[in-house]
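RETRY 2/3 - previous attempt timed out on the joint model. Re-submitting the same 406-residue input unchanged.
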Amino acid sequence: MSFSPLLSNLIESLQALPGVGRKTAQRMALSLLEKTPDKAARLASDIEEALEKVGRCAQCRNLTEAEICLICEDRRRDQSVLCIVETPMDVMAVESAGSFRGKYFVLYGKLSPLDGVGPEDIGIDQLLKMVLAEGVEEVILATNLTVEGEATAHYICEQLRRLNLDHPIKLSRIAQGVPTGGELEYVDGNTLSQAFAGRKAYS
Amino acid sequence: MSFSPLLSNLIESLQALPGVGRKTAQRMALSLLEKTPDKAARLASDIEEALEKVGRCAQCRNLTEAEICLICEDRRRDQSVLCIVETPMDVMAVESAGSFRGKYFVLYGKLSPLDGVGPEDIGIDQLLKMVLAEGVEEVILATNLTVEGEATAHYICEQLRRLNLDHPIKLSRIAQGVPTGGELEYVDGNTLSQAFAGRKAYS
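RETRY 2/3 succeeded.
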């Protein structure tokens, strides 16, 4: 290799970024040093500052440098609806969609006994406490539509039902079906079966 | 937006990387903080160290933290052949191909009067000095096969010819034609014309 040791280190480190292979990392390294050294310096300091200060929201576990995140702090949001997602990226996706105005709880993963991920790893205790303390009326299970995501949703439902609250909590799961713009021809059979099973009366 | 200020800063900064848009930057930021904080810290320090120490080789202008880069220092390489390229990425590409064993000179761009890029910006003086000092016998012009790349190659040829050296320097331009694996049906007309004009006797 003809790259100098420091350049090689940088190229190696850039490959820690998701989706970045050797070739892309080379291009990134040269671009940072050659074209945008100011932005490169800012990137380095932003990484360091975020690593040092960003942690999890004490309520919903979303990433934040504050004790309580911006969403949990926002009293205009509907405090009675809680949406449970797997990752902070999912919070972002739902926020971008713009139709949900309740609060979130981030699991940081899904139950996966084979990988040694149990209820304590995805913060079930904290979730139950939050439901008890905050007067939540509806819990929307928005874990992924994968086998583990379904199992996790199922487990959380069981736990919430066992709480035996005075007021019954409404539990719901996000709808499964053909995505907007989807063409039946290209949709997998399982999705299609779910779309038929979950059909709604035509209004 | 529901990201905290520090996270927003980091996402913004990651977009300085070539080919990284908002969505990818979000995924990268969360991955760095959540999944690979150790690698994130190393990335930050590698960027800072490279920014501080990596500069240009005093001979060929390639990126290096040393006075003279590894290629220029390697006396086993053919000192009589000099390959002129536009960027350090091009050095990398030619090195990966593995067939060239001479030295390089990196222009960091191409002549582009409209953008105010003149001969002094691409190190022509330094190039001429290098050719005079190092006993170069052949110069291979490996600038891109674009209009500006061709113009730059042409200009450099003119300058080298004007040196009026005792020993004539062989000047060559990389071959233009159909790429390996290329199908004539999908190759543009200009390339095809060049491939016909540059045809070689079948041995």
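Chain A touches chain B through 58 residues (CB under 8 Å). Closing ticket.
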